[in-house]
UniProtKB/TrEMBL annotation:
Name of the protein: Adenosine 5'-phosphosulfate reductase
UniProt keyword Iron-sulfur present: yes
GO cellular component terms, semicolon-separated: cytoplasm
Highest taxon, organism lineage: Bacteria
Protein's job: Catalyzes the formation of sulfite from adenosine 5'-phosphosulfate (APS) using thioredoxin as an electron donor.
UniProt family annotation: Belongs to the PAPS reductase family. CysH subfamily.
Catalytic activity: [thioredoxin]-disulfide + sulfite + AMP + 2 H(+) = adenosine 5'-phosphosulfate + [thioredoxin]-dithiol
Pathway assigned to this chain's UniProt record: Sulfur metabolism; hydrogen sulfide biosynthesis; sulfite from sulfate
Residue numbers binding [4Fe-4S] cluster: C129, C130, C212, C215
Keywords: Cytoplasm, Iron, Iron-sulfur, Metal-binding, Oxidoreductase
The keyword Iron-sulfur is annotated on this UniProt entry: yes
Cofactor note: Binds 1 [4Fe-4S] cluster per subunit.
Chain's gene name: cysH
Gene Ontology biological process terms, A to Z: hydrogen sulfide biosynthetic process; sulfate assimilation, phosphoadenylyl sulfate reduction by phosphoadenylyl-sulfate reductase (thioredoxin)
Amino acid sequence: MTLVDIEVGLKEQSGTLDLQDIVESAATFLEGAPAREIIRWAAATFGDRLCLTSSMSDALLIDLVSRVKPGVDVLFIDTGYHFAETIGTRDAVRQVYDVNVIDIKPSRTVEEQDRDLGPRLFGRNPDLCCFLRKVEPLNRALEPYLAWISGIRRDESASRTDTRVVEWDAKRQMVKVNPIAAWTQEDVDNYIADNGVLINPLHYDNYPSIGCAPCTRQVLEGEDPRSGRWAGLGKVECGIHL
């Protein structure tokens, strides 16, 4: 019996199944399962109320999910500060993969934010800038869905070591699915090479972790892969996954 069978049975008995109950049973049942099995469960459980997010650092998650759920909605937060290479990767994804890329825009343009809050907010108050240009737009965009798929991994930073493959996103009151949470960088590199996955060309220029252009620098040999994000600002997360 699969987890989907169990949940269908529970629904038949009770009429509805609380999303948090789904999280608890799925997190235990799917720990250690292959990424595609986790995605297959999410697609079967949530159907069209499931989406994924992508920063267009690479198309690994897009490749994985589209093989299981063609036409899936991919939310891309167009902050107005992206590298040209990131926008180019997004455009290539639209052409190569069977997905529906949806551009998510902040409520203010960069020019309007500069006018209202002063220029270079990203340097003066990076937490506020990330909230306005990433977190708040994503929160709005996720409202129609019951669950979203993220590509975060446990080995990326100390704040992500406890990531579960299925979690309750209390802030947004929805389910969060992390199918590659247990993957290592070697797993990522092997999958990209074996499957010809599109990647952002900035990776070839020592940008292992890619965010907005003003807050991302090249990483030197021996440095932590995420050390190029918000360097010198005492910040390690944009807030989306907190």
